[in-house]
Design goal:
This protein is α/β, with parallel strands linked by helices and 367 residues long. The protein contains 15 helices and 13 strands.
């Protein structure tokens, strides 16, 4: 992550506060190891160099950090997420997307990585690919990132988040499925609890969620097609869904369960006069007016019929295998595809952008 040393660092008396030598040393070390980006005003870096409390090797590292940052000065000035390390702050605080971190809280092992806590490991590993795509598309080849995906345990992600925030020395991104059934619906209960915990001012974390219902709904359809190229049944299902999508100006693909399909018993559970009921009622009416042979206008609670087909139960893991180059048809020219149709990859690249800037880092320094 982008870490900025506040100017109050210039006022430290290292004879009175020798522990701050180790804290700043940890920041220098983690930056040079490719774990984050460390920045400051030139006067602050000069103060550290001339303080005579740091080793020759640490001074060389500071000078190398300064040279690196000079090249990216304009970019870093506009970094969307920042940690400001202050010698006078007594606790973690947050102002929008800026976190104030007490220098006194930084100890050995701090800020070695950004933890990406997703509902399961596959979700986190998929999101790392979105970071790679965003990074390459924007030409940030000289920058790196240090992000570690973690398994949040599905519906147990809230309790696991509590544990992580209490024990981790690193910044944490918690990424949840929205679990929304329509655009204006409320977030799922677990997701809402995670956002409230993560957004509290004393927490060193950031909350993210899917744009659609689940991670599967945010995957670019091109990836899904390519990762199931040898499965004609999946290809047929995708064609059906894409046909309906082309006929309706309703974002239903963002909110159906692509692992199970759209079923009448699923729709019938929504209470009348709710956002979900209105959305799927509108969809029902629109679908009945197009030439879709699989449509069946039955929404009784006693019926359980498929309205729209699923894509695949293992859609996410299959797509991950393809992106990891574990399938026969290897990923080719992904970035060219994204560049040609950025709108189709909007949600994907937005995730990549946020996670990249939360976990950005220098490449390792070798002196």
């Amino acid at each position: 992550m982008y870490i900025f040393l506040d100017e109050d660092i210039n006022n430290i008396d290292f004879l009175l506060y020798p522990q701050y030598i180790d804290s700043i040393g940890q920041l220098i070390s983690s930056t040079c190891c490719g774990c984050n980006i460390l920045d400051a005003k030139r006067s602050t870096f000069k103060f550290l160099i001339e303080s005579t409390v740091f080793s020759k090797n640490q001074v060389k590292n500071i000078e190398e950090i300064m040279r690196h940052n000079y090249e990216y000065n304009d970019l870093f000035q506009n970094a969307p997420y920042k940690i400001i390390v202050s010698s006078t702050a007594s606790s973690i605080s947050r102002n929008d997307n800026i976190w104030i971190l007490p220098l006194s809280s930084i100890e050995y092992g701090s800020l070695q990585s950004v933890e990406l806590l997703a509902e399961d490991l596959t979700d986190g590993q998929l999101l790392i690919h979105s970071v790679d795509h965003y990074k390459k598309l924007n030409g940030y080849n000289s920058l790196s990132y240090k992000i570690t995906p973690r398994n949040g345990g599905g519906t147990n992600i809230y309790s696991n988040l509590i544990n992580v925030l209490e024990n981790s020395k690193d910044f944490t991104i918690v990424f949840c499925d929205s679990d929304k059934f329509s655009p204006e619906a409320n977030l799922g209960d677990t997701t809402q609890k995670c956002i409230e915990l993560s957004n509290s001012h004393e927490k060193f974390s950031f909350f993210m969620k899917t744009k659609g219902r689940e991670i599967e709904n945010d995957l670019p359809i091109t990836f899904v097609i390519e990762s199931h190229i040898d499965d004609p049944k999946v290809q047929q299902r995708i064609q059906k869904l894409e046909y309906v999508k082309s006929k309706l100006d309703i974002p239903f693909m963002d909110y159906i369960d692509l692992k199970e399909g759209l079923r009448t018993d699923w729709i019938s559970k929504f209470e009348k006069n709710t956002k979900n009921f209105e959305f799927w009622g509108e969809f029902n009416l629109a679908l009945s007016k197009i030439n879709y042979k699989d449509f069946n206008n039955k929404f009784s609670q006693d019926e359980s019929e498929t309205i729209l087909p699923m894509i695949c139960e293992k859609m996410a893991s299959n797509t991950l295998d393809w992106l990891d180059d574990k399938k026969k048809n290897h990923p080719k020219s992904i970035h060219s595809q994204i560049k040609k149709d950025a709108k189709a990859f909007n949600s994907w690249l937005e995730h990549g952008k946020d996670i990249f800037w939360l976990g950005c880092a220098m490449k390792k320094i070798r002196l």
